Amino acid sequence: xARHHISVMPFGEVCGRVTGVSGLAVAVEGLGGHVAIGDxxxxxxxxxxxxxxxxxxxxxxxxxxxPVAQAMVFGSLDGIGPGTQARLDLWLEPGSPDACFRDRRxxxxxxxxxxxxxxxxxxxxxxxxxxxxxxxxxRPARAAPPQATDRARLGPRIxxxxxxxxxxxxxxxxxxxxxxxxxxxxxxxxxxxxARHADCDVAVIALVGERGREVREFLEDDLGPDGVARSVxxxxxxxxxxxxxxxxxxxxxxxxxxxxDQGLSVLLLMDSVTRFCLALRExxxxxxxxxxxxxYPPSVFAELPRLLxxxxxxxxxxxxxxxxxxxxxxVLVEGDDHNEPVADAVRGILDGxxxxxxxxxxxxxxxxxxxxxxxxxxxPRCNDADENALTSRARRVMSTHAEMSDMIRLGAYKAGSDPxxxxxxxxxxxxEKVLRQGRDEHMSRLDAFAQLRLALxxxxxxxxxxx
Length: 467
Hints:
- By secondary structure, the chain is an alpha/beta fold.
- The chain folds into 3 domains: 12-90, Thrombin, subunit H (Beta Barrel); 107-378, Rossmann fold (3-Layer(aba) Sandwich); 386-460, Substrate Binding Domain Of Dnak, Chain:A, Domain 2.
- It has helices spanning 2-7, 163-168, 187-197, 212-229, 242-260, 273-286, 298-308, 341-349, 358-362, 379-382, 385-410, 419-435, 445-455, 458-461; strands at residues 12-22, 25-29, 40-44, 50-59, 68-73, 85-92, 101-102, 107-108, 118-119, 139-140, 157-158, 171-172, 176-181, 202-210, 231-237, 265-271, 312-313, 324-332, 352-355, 375-376.
- Helix 12 runs antiparallel to helix 13 (445-455).
- It is elongated.
């Protein structure tokens, strides 16, 4: 016990001083060769308060002079000025025969009792329910994905509880889907439906850069008591510093990995990857990196797969079992441009994409999922032949109706000219009913396929058939 307490106590410290502040970056001198990218510093403001900071880069000076560390803070820069003390705690390397110092980067000591709690990206409670119980192991927030050859394969298909998704973008345990939508199209409502209805053991929700006004509404109205009870929610609102917004994504992934390593099926919902990338862009530009694609520095697109690849099937245990992180990452497409850089990069990494269309929402169909533009790469192997034939036929009907919608709306199409169009005109209203779903409505995947089969049944669709 004493050895454990000693191992988690700082053995020494190195102190430097702030020599300049430019934008969001703080220049720190005097830390010598002890500091590295990602190290946490403690800055002492003019009022004596401690402000956590992270080293994000270095600036070279003269040939003989040590580089100046570039740091960014997790809070406000108020009170930081020239001469402000910057402290780096050091720990003794366990098991080292020499007095070898190392830095100890903070992580998250996740515990099962975190279910039902709301935390900030640094693992501090923000729900007013008291302190959190710490687990025995501190997991680093920034970790490497499991080795590709050691990972389990995708698990069986799971019920997401949303008909449009279960039917046309069927998901397997451990699969990663992107949810692409503009602002105000209903992403948050769809995420709340998934958190409440999806077939999983634990849900982890990351609200990255979310509007502060909407947080309580999401927790109390959209998620509800049942959804909150089986979830861990990590929040960094839009007014948070970029480091906090970035860290929210890492923290949520770390919590999900903790429950995955216990062999559980975890549903990870992250809203949104775009705001995570915007935070990365602010950090990189402040550190002096040059912008490239639409103002995004190259490091953003290098960091993105490191985060997304952490989701998915976990490593196979000696017993042959493995936990799964089934993840849905929302992408806030700028100006409804689905080919903008972040959307294009995310689509190439994930195992499928779900597109939400503003026009469908304006027409009153919620969730506003554009089935024809959505795709799950696991569908051919996880659905049986009858189900694949059923969804393929439904897609053909919807595609035919979409191609002829203008002529039908204007009355330019003459009934009997094309049997496929005639069928689409009859069946499309029935398919619309299948795709519409209330926020509190829940239906299993098998019942959803039964409803789709009934909607496409010519006998029930004919005049006088059952509606």
